[in-house]
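Field log, afternoon session.

UNIT: design team B
ACTIVITY: writing a sequence onto a fixed backbone
BACKBONE:
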């Protein structure tokens, strides 16, 4: 399901991006996205550091600094159902926001971990950069986006039944699978504690407020503003947790995966439809 969604979103976004071109609006939106991808893990780390270890705070900050592709998919479906258009460059914005949070998480660990531990058991910066920008999810998304840009609308006519015809059905099946996974993890929320549960709800609201402010300053359209806000309020529960397991083995993966999937994800999906 996830492979199909990445291909479909990337290719369709590439077609729209080819039609729109690299305008000043696209450039400033990408720049704002990069700024949020760096700022969110930075400020959330110092908040989480009050209640978590350096390693757990950095891993959690990276998770909440990245994005959720599923939330983006739900946002695009909501816009399609309400007949509100959005730019194809938002797919490029999504792919750009995927990796910087991982790098920020590693930098924060190296800066604030106890002396003598900041490099233990972790790959070097080159390996981190390679894993962040060349992991399968990013490559599949960016590759599909590039193919969509190159082939354009005309060459893609024959792919419409596959790229968009079955899209909604696949989204429903994927959300069902994700919901079942979240339900299986829900019983462990008692172990997390009220402070982190509150963070899982308040952090997306704070980041969404920042996203709304930036969208207003940049004069984004309604569709682009909604997707940009959703991306700013997102938290990863697939790509970044997997990367942080390898990069920060001292962190507790059950902590940030549980909070992102069982609290933040359903909260975001609910608010996206209000």
């Amino acid at each position: 399901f996830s492979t199909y969604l990445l291909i479909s979103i990337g290719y369709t976004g590439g077609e729209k991006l080819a039609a729109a071109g690299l305008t000043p609006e696209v450039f400033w939106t990408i720049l704002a996205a990069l700024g949020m991808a760096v700022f969110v893990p930075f400020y959330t780390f110092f908040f989480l550091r009050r209640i978590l270890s350096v390693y757990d705070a950095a891993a959690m900050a990276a998770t909440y600094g990245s994005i959720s592709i599923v939330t983006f998919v739900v946002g695009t479906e909501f816009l399609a159902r309400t007949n509100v258009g959005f730019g194809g460059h938002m797919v490029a914005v999504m792919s750009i926001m995927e990796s910087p949070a991982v790098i920020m998480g590693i930098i924060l660990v190296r800066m604030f971990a106890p002396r003598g531990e900041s490099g233990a058991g972790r790959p070097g910066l080159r390996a981190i950069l390679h894993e962040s920008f060349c992991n399968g999810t990013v490559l599949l998304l960016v590759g599909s986006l590039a193919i969509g840009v190159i082939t354009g609308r005309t060459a893609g006519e024959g792919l419409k039944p596959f790229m968009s015809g079955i899209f909604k059905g696949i989204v429903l099946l994927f959300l069902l699978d994700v919901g079942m996974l979240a339900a299986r993890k829900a019983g462990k929320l008692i172990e997390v504690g009220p402070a982190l549960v509150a963070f899982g709800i308040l952090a997306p609201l704070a980041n969404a407020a920042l996203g709304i402010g930036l969208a207003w300053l940049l004069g984004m359209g309604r569709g682009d503003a909604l997707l940009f806000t959703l991306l700013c309020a997102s938290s990863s529960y697939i790509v970044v947790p997997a990367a942080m397991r390898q990069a920060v083995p001292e962190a507790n993966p059950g902590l940030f995966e549980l909070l992102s999937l069982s609290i933040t994800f359903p909260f975001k999906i609910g608010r996206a439809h209000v």
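LOG NOTE: Residues 192 and 255 are 7 Å apart (CA to CA).
NEXT ACTIVITY: expression trials, pending approval
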